[in-house]
Amino acid sequence: MKALKLSILAAVIVCGISTVKAQTADEIMEKHQKAIGSVEAWNNIKTVKMEGTMSIQGNDINITQTMALGKAMRTDLNAMGMNFYQIVTKTKGWMYMPGMEKVDTMKPEMLKAFQAQLELKGKELLSYKENGTKAEYLGKDTLNKVVCYKLKFTDKDGNESTSFFDATTYYLVRTESKVKQKDEEEQEVAIGYDNYKKMDEGVVMPMTITPMGNEINFKSIELNKPVDDKIFMPGDATTESGAAAK
């Protein structure tokens, strides 16, 4: 009788194990997509303007980032009374820093890296298959006490990145990738995402982003507001905004 009970118990355990369905990359991505908004809602987003602050070595920096999705992106920063900006389009890129005599043209390697950001990260993940990117489930991990699903993405050019998704909310928590400048060693670039907020347009976006350990807190995110294309051309570097096209 005891042997029979043990054999039945063993059978139940084996059956229980066999019926536990492991998460797959596609299943995790489907749940992530449901969590951050429908594909239709994301496709309806054409422009984004985000305003926030960050602190570096005790200095507060005001940040304004304006995007015409898939076309161009401009980032303006103000620190200690000085203004500088960075502009990226599908064909060119410029940057201006205080002390520079003129606007500098981005080198091809840097431009390519920034052009990959012309789409919002959430939208990129929504269309990863259509972009020819493959996803692989690497198991679970824990970041800042948050249990996460860990996925590796490999794009059509062979570039790899790793993303971590909250196992409860399925929000993106962190991305890791390696960037190599010409004639330089690869550098790991990590970006954290937190404080998600649902927008009136039906999409969910992080209000806190931490690139390379520098936390940016956005006080406002405006979607689908009119954007003047002139701001995506470098202007007079001596002006406050540097936005007026010449």
The secondary-structure element order is HHHEEEEEEHHEEEEEEE
Strand content is 35-45%
The CATH superfamily is known as: Lipoprotein localisation LolA/LolB/LppX
- Content-based structural category: alpha+beta
Number of domains: 1
CATH architecture: Clam
Give the number of DSSP strands. Answer: 13
CATH topology: outer membrane lipoprotein receptor (LolB), chain A
Just give the CATH class.
Mainly Beta
Largest sheet: 13 strands, antiparallel
Give me the number of helical elements.
5
| Radius of gyration using CA atoms only | 22 Å
Mean pLDDT: 83
Largest beta sheet: what is the strand line-up?
A: 6-5-4-3-2-1-13-12-11-10-9-8-7
Given the C-alpha coordinates, what overall shape results? globular
Stretches where pLDDT falls below 50 for ≥5 residues? 2-21, 236-246
Cα distance, first to last residue?
92 Å
How much helix, percentage-wise, in residues? 10-25%
Could you characterize the architecture of this molecule?
Mean pLDDT is 83; it is low at 2-21 and 236-246. The chain is globular. β4 and β5 form a beta hairpin. It has a single domain (23-232), classed as Lipoprotein localisation LolA/LolB/LppX (outer membrane lipoprotein receptor (LolB), chain A), CATH 2.50.20. It has helices at 2-19, 25-36, 39-43, 108-115, 121-126, and strands spanning 47-56, 59-68, 72-79, 82-89, 93-96, 104-105, 134-143, 146-154, 160-166, 172-179, 187-198, 204-211, 216-223. It has a 13-stranded antiparallel beta sheet with strand order 6-5-4-3-2-1-13-12-11-10-9-8-7, with helices on one face. The chain is built from 5 helices and 13 strands. With 246 residues, the protein is of the alpha+beta class. The N and C termini lie far apart (92 Å).
